[in-house]
């Protein structure tokens, strides 16, 4: 019996997703968002790319890839796995925030993981990139050691 | 809303009938070859996509992402990144957009392998654009889908919907059609070509940026609401201080002359074959100095 599942979404669809790394044994789910996709009518190329990403992300653990209503599928998966907590990596997308709110309203504990920051930033961004860059350039150009190191060649083949 | 946009004429929009009252659908995770996965997913996601069930040559997944990161040589990037023919770009954007690679680890990898040079600084600067768009998206949410500022100058072209030639990549302009064809067949378009197409649609054809952004979003593997819509607004001057325009000289210079060499309009009738001063007058009815906000 597990107490937590990991919910993967299209903004963090990697075996190195922070929520996955924090829960190495937890079951994971990715849902093709049926109402959104039915309206958006994206090209198949994009959906297949997501599928390839999701397959690798869940490899080696109990995983499920579904099509449906995201919140309903995540809730159903949590129930199947007897989990009360959903771990997920944060996204700035409004739709993501809405789904998190719905999961919490449904009684699930949602544990948010932050993706590694490129630069630290607090407050509102400026209106122009040039102003942003002036303020972050020094930090952006300093390696932080965040994120996995590029593996040796034989490991990526 | 997307269903109202034109699609490639030869493409079929799959029926949505099957969507109603379907029970939970688990997708298989045990299909082994890529060809079998394509055939399987085409059926499993029926109704959720437009166009033919053909995958991109760009593979999804962390392994493919790391292969591409390893293969990318940042040396010369500052010089070659804008060249549509020389292809100095990394093509890491599909992986960055989906969190398969993070900006931080790509930055670290490039700096550790190639050191601090003008090339790597330029590359990290480009990574920072994505970080910037994400911050704006975090602040404004879906408001990024509306004009963030008044346009500094509006094209004099009459407003029109996305013409079918654009959806069919048959405008007759080789630089535009080749760029669109790359988008439709691979799900990728070189950044400089994106700027050409976005400027052409908005400033020459009079298409609203939202229609162009929607077309790109539907096809791009790296399609991201923030990067995509905000870049279209940057070209249109609703999120920048001037509209972006280009001319034939720019296309020739950054495509090794290859597009123009094959273009039937090269000998006459090319809408881009003019000085920036004349284009500012033709497209916006202002001088170049006014267009660029210099007076």
What this model shows, in words?
The complex is a heterodimer of chains A (157) and B (295). Chain A is globular, with a radius of gyration of 18 Å. In chain A, helix 4 packs across helix 5 (94-105). In chain A, 42% of the residues lie in helices and 18% in strands. Chain A has a five-stranded parallel β-sheet, with helices on both faces. The N and C termini of chain A lie far apart (35 Å). The longest helix of chain A is centred in the first third of the chain and has 15 residues, at 44-58. The mean pLDDT of chain A is 93. With 157 residues, chain A is α/β, with parallel strands linked by helices. Chain A has a single domain (4-113), classed as 3-Layer(aba) Sandwich (Rossmann fold). In chain A, helix 1 (18-22) links the parallel strand 1 (4-8) and strand 2. Chain A has helices spanning 18-22, 34-40, 44-58, 70-80, 94-105, 129-140, 153-156, and strands spanning 4-8, 28-33, 42-43, 63-68, 85-89, 109-113. By secondary structure, chain B is mainly α. Chain B has three domains: 2-44, no CATH class; 62-145, Serine Threonine Protein Phosphatase 5, Tetratricopeptide repeat (Alpha Horseshoe); 164-291, DNA Cyclobutane Dipyrimidine Photolyase, subunit A, domain 3, CATH 1.10.579.10. In chain B, 48% of the residues lie in helices and 2% in strands. Chain B contains 15 helices and two strands. Chain B has helices spanning 34-44, 62-71, 77-80, 93-97, 103-114, 118-140, 164-167, 174-186, 191-204, 209-219, 225-236, 248-253, 258-261, 276-284, 288-291; strands spanning 25-27, 49-50. Residues 1-21 of chain B have low confidence and may be disordered. The interface between A and B is large, with 72 and 89 residues. Strand 4 of chain A pairs antiparallel with strand 1 of chain B. Chain A: This is Photolyase/cryptochrome alpha/beta domain-containing protein.
